[in-house]
Design a protein that fits this description.
By secondary structure, this protein is mainly alpha-helical. 77% of the residues lie in helices and 4% in strands.
């Protein structure tokens, strides 16, 4: 595997994992606000900024890894990106105001958090739509003239377009989104330790994974034995939780996120060595030359600082939450 792609995909896996944990919390808030609200928000309140940080890191890594093709692809997906950014801003504003709802006395925290949940759900769907298009190539038209790496430095030599209508008509893409939503709901009770949904979680995870396999086949993905890894995590975690096996590990937020990142990272074969169902050969468009070492060193420093700051951030929020709980 290309080094820069490996780093880029890890960053993407981390960003997606954090986003999915928020989506899991959102689902629990929608279905069980009364009993799950406090438990979910105690996690989401400090983590929503972490998610944004990893998404920003993902954008930076994408720019470094696919410097030539990033701009043409961004133009092609401009509408989706715009919708995503609008929803992302609404999400951020809603959760910030939600933290101070009692002081403002204009909206209740529940109303604002529902806005947060809705925007998070919608932006997740938009993100999944983009991911499915990159995997399947449905709705995407790409044309590169001349030497791939050199020509991509000029937009005039790389034409990329995206048709939503053709994407909707393509087999597997909508099913991919549905499967992701079902898997997310299935894992929600495990992450937030909500036993009343544990049985439904098993069913949802199994059905979601099966539909995910079907969607991959329909999108033309060449299956890899690595698919066993997400299968074990996605199906195994809810079952183990249901029967109270390794519950302490599974409900540990840090351990759960690590498992989620491993599960997502093991799916790299869906876009490597080619993406968009063979339309884009990654070895032809990944950054090469002196920039590779520079990117690796910069990423190493960036991730080290990010890990330190995130650890400090989570620790401070944890101590703050403990202090509030003790005071009550």
């Amino acid at each position: 595997m290309l080094t820069l792609f490996a780093i880029e995909f890890f960053t993407a896996a981390a960003a997606i994992a954090f986003l999915l944990t928020e989506l899991m919390g959102g689902m629990m808030l929608l279905f069980d606000w009364k009993n799950s609200g406090q438990r979910v928000m105690s996690y989401v309140a400090p983590v929503w900024e972490v998610t944004g940080t990893f998404l920003a890191m993902f954008v930076v890594e994408t720019d470094a890894t696919f410097a030539g093709i990033l701009l043409p692809v961004a133009f092609a997906f401009a509408a989706l990106l715009l919708v995503f950014l609008i929803l992302f801003i609404i999400r951020n504003v809603a959760i910030i105001l939600g933290e101070f709802a009692e002081k403002r006395q204009v909206f209740t925290d529940r109303q604002l958090y529902y806005v947060y949940v809705t925007s998070t759900l919608l932006l997740s769907v938009v993100f999944l739509a983009f991911v499915s298009a990159i995997i399947s190539g449905h709705g995407i038209s790409i044309s590169i003239s001349g030497n791939p790496v050199d020509s991509l430095l000029s937009i005039s030599n790389a034409q990329v377009s995206f048709s939503v209508a053709k994407w909707l008509a393509g087999p597997g893409d909508i099913l991919f989104i549905i499967s992701a939503v079902l898997i997310t709901f299935g894992l929600s009770p495990v992450l937030y330790d909500i036993e009343r949904f544990s049985a439904a979680g098993i069913v949802s995870s199994v059905v979601g994974f099966v539909l995910g396999l079907v969607s991959f086949i329909q999108m033309g993905v060449h299956m890899s034995p690595l698919i066993v890894i997400p299968a074990i995590i996605i199906i195994g975690a809810p079952i183990l939780y249901r029967f109270n096996i390794a519950k302490g590990i599974l409900t540990n937020k840090a351990a759960f996120i690590v498992l989620l990142i491993i599960s997502i990272y093991s799916l790299y074969f869906t876009v490597y060595p080619t993406a968009m169902h063979g339309k884009l050969v990654l070895s032809q468009v990944v950054t090469t030359g002196p920039m590779v070492l520079g990117t690796i060193l910069t990423t190493a420093v960036g991730f080290t600082l990010l890990a330190f700051m995130l650890s400090l951030y989570v620790y401070v929020n944890y101590r703050s939450a403990r202090s509030v709980s003790t005071a009550k």
